[in-house]
Specification:
elongated; alpha+beta; six-stranded mixed beta sheet; Nuclear Transport Factor 2, Chain: A
């Protein structure tokens, strides 16, 4: 009986070691993915200030749902066009209190969005934002965004 129990224990030990390797690899991958999402959030911020149509389109998923704090909802084409054609373009945007949670091919980003708007009557905005990013191929794309008054 001892001779059959030993190989079974060895197989279990190997299986547990393999599972530990997978868990460790996921733990290492999560911070890397969170850093990749953070880079995309920053790229979106910069593209919004620059009103960079090609970059905004590249960062946005085709099914984008972009919600404003006043309740207006835009699809990808509306979001990009309205930002590019705005009479009150962003002069600056900063994010603070940012958190990123990655779960497989999805990431949830929360932050405080502060911006300075130009145009005939300059103004400022400070809102809370929830973003959902999804991994499409090797790229993280903005799938959903909802702003709310703080």
């Amino acid at each position: 009986m001892a001779t059959t129990a030993r190989p079974r224990l060895e197989r279990r030990a190997l299986a547990l070691a393999g599972l530990g390797t997978i868990i460790a690899a996921k733990a290492i991958a999560q911070p890397n993915e969170a850093a990749a999402v953070a880079a995309q959030v920053e790229a979106l911020r910069a593209a919004m200030v620059a009103a960079d149509r090609p970059r905004l389109e590249a960062l946005s998923a085709s099914a984008l749902s972009y919600g404003h704090s006043a309740g207006r909802i835009e699809n990808k084409a509306q979001f990009v066009s309205n930002l590019i054609e705005s009479r009150t373009p962003f002069r600056s945007i900063t994010h603070s209190d940012q958190t990123i949670a990655v779960d497989g091919p999805n990431a949830i980003v929360r932050n405080t969005f502060s911006g300075e708007l130009g145009g005939p009557t300059p103004s400022s905005v400070r809102i809370g934002v929830l973003q959902v990013w999804t991994k499409q191929g090797a790229d993280w794309k903005l799938l959903a965004r909802q702003a709310f008054r703080t």
